[in-house]
């Protein structure tokens, strides 16, 4: 040990105040799926020999990361932090023992301790991850009903602490016929892309432009058809996450026009059938195809209505 080293060592023993370790001034907020630096450092670099840095969760005594004998000790890490917590190896020599915690989950909320041992000295700080922000997507109604030919509104609210410009994408998709997922409407990088809608929805689907800054990504679907019945998903992508909510268009009621059309179908069936009776009687054997024709036209009628 050099003379200088002895002096420092002696001074540390004398003051017995331990190491002065610095951490963040405030609790931290992380983002779901993102990464965060948990700061921990000392003013002046510490000699590598005899240096030990231990990052722990206070609430569950799990070892987040360990630096010992001049190197990382990943094998000592608790399983839930393996490959997720890293020291900045270039920084350790400078007295910076911060760690990078990646792939944040809600379970990472909590208090962490950074304990630094150097010779006989110990110092520690605690770092709190107070909150893990995530995007919450809600649909006001689980199911909506409409009449054929009407417009319908599918609600989707994006509640996040993340500013709207950090929402990379919001897409409405029809998802009930998996794996055939149909794109209904797309919002990406701050713009609406109506031309990317599936042809079945082109010119029929729209956002409420003035509502988007409020996180209201409700969809208006115009001129609803029976084929529109089913499940729709409002999917929100941010840099680190994908969240979604679903809304169903339930059984479609029939408008007056449809009821009238259907009634006409019945009447035409009845007429064809009744008229075919005398034909069947007087021109024998030629009735059968006509009855078949009557039924065919009836079913055709029903298909059109639906
Ligand atoms: C972190 O997330 C990325 C992307 O989702 C994934 O590829 C990677 O395997 C994850 N790493 C860990 C350690 O979970
Ligand atoms: C420690 O290193 C990290 C990663 O390079 C850096 O973001 C942070 O500012 C450093 N802290 C100090 C106190 O230098
Ligand atoms: C939106 O931005 C991303 C990343 O910047 C890019 O990959 C993507 O092509 C953009 N989409 C459109 C439709 O411009
Ligand atoms: C979103 O906007 C639509 C259209 O203006 C409106 O009907 C709906 O109530 C709004 N949703 C919320 C939660 O404000």
UniProtKB/TrEMBL annotation:
GO terms for biological process: cell surface receptor signaling pathway; cellular response to lipopolysaccharide; immune response; negative regulation of T cell proliferation; positive regulation of T cell proliferation; T cell costimulation. Pfam families: V-set. The keyword Lipoprotein does not apply. The chain crosses the membrane at residues 256-283. It is found in: Cell membrane. Keywords: Cell membrane, Disulfide bond, Glycoprotein, Immunoglobulin domain, Membrane, Receptor, Signal, Transmembrane, Transmembrane helix. It is a single-pass type I membrane protein. Residues 1-18 form the signal peptide. The keyword Cell membrane applies. It comes from the Eukaryota. GO terms for cellular component: external side of plasma membrane. Residues 33-130, 133-250 form the Ig-like domain. PROSITE patterns: IG_LIKE (PS50835). This is Ig-like domain-containing protein. It comes from Sinocyclocheilus grahami (Dianchi golden-line fish). The lineage of its organism: Eukaryota, Metazoa, Chordata, Craniata, Vertebrata.
């Amino acid at each position: 040990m050099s003379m200088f080293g002895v002096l420092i060592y002696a001074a540390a023993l004398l003051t017995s105040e331990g190491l002065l370790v610095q951490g963040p001034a405030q609790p931290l907020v992380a983002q779901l799926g993102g990464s965060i630096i948990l700061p921990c450092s000392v003013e002046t670099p510490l000699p590598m020999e005899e240096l030990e840095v231990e990052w722990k969760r206070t609430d569950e005594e799990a070892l987040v990361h360990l630096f010992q004998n001049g190197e990382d000790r990943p094998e000592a890490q608790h399983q839930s932090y393996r490959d997720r917590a890293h020291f900045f190896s270039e920084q350790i020599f400078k007295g910076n023992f911060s760690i990078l915690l990646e792939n944040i989950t809600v379970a990472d909320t909590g208090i962490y301790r950074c304990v630094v041992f150097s010779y006989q000295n110990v110092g520690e700080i605690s770092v709190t991850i107070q909150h893990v922000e995530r995007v919450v997507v809600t649909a006001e109604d689980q199911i909506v009903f409409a009449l054929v030919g009407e417009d319908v509104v599918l609600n989707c609210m994006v509640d996040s602490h993340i500013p709207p410009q950090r929402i990379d994408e919001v897409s409405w998709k029809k998802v009930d016929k998996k794996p055939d997922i149909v794109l209904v409407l797309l919002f990406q990088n701050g713009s609406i892309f109506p031309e990317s809608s599936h042809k079945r929805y082109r010119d029929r689907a729209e956002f409420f432009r003035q509502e988007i800054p409020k996180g209201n990504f409700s969809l208006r679907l115009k001129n609803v058809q029976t084929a529109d019945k089913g499940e729709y998903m409002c999917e929100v992508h941010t840099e680190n996450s994908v969240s979604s909510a679903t809304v169903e268009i339930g059984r479609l009621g029939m408008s007056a026009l449809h009821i009238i059309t259907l009634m006409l179908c019945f009447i035409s069936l009845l007429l064809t059938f009744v008229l075919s009776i005398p034909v069947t009687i007087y021109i024998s054997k030629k009735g059968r195809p006509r009855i078949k024709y009557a039924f065919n036209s009836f079913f055709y009628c029903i298909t059109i209505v639906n």
